[in-house]
Task: structure prediction
Amino acid sequence: MLFALLSEELFQVKATYLPATTVPGEMLRQVQELNPDIICVCSLPPSAVSKARYSLKRIHHDLQTIQVIVGLWHSNAGLAKAKERLESIAAGQGKLLIATSLREGLSHVEKSQLSKVPASTTPA
Result:
């Protein structure tokens, strides 16, 4: 929820938060209705990587064209292996970014959104 609130402060970003308690099938249905440019899967220890992998598999199966950011908050241990496991799901589609801090995640969102805005409307 915090990541969604912080994302709202970025230029031309409208963020929606779906709680982790939402049933996966229902979550995918809601995401399809929202038709977002970006999905951020936020995951905390314990089991941050396995939870993120499960969500990522569902997203890449049903929503292959959407940019995905996986936020592995507070998961510095074994980060290289975690990234490898997550990237194997995306299978080189280039639609996966991994963030280990809120700042890094927000930077990914901002860069992604700014790349879609015509140069004449970008903030100074």
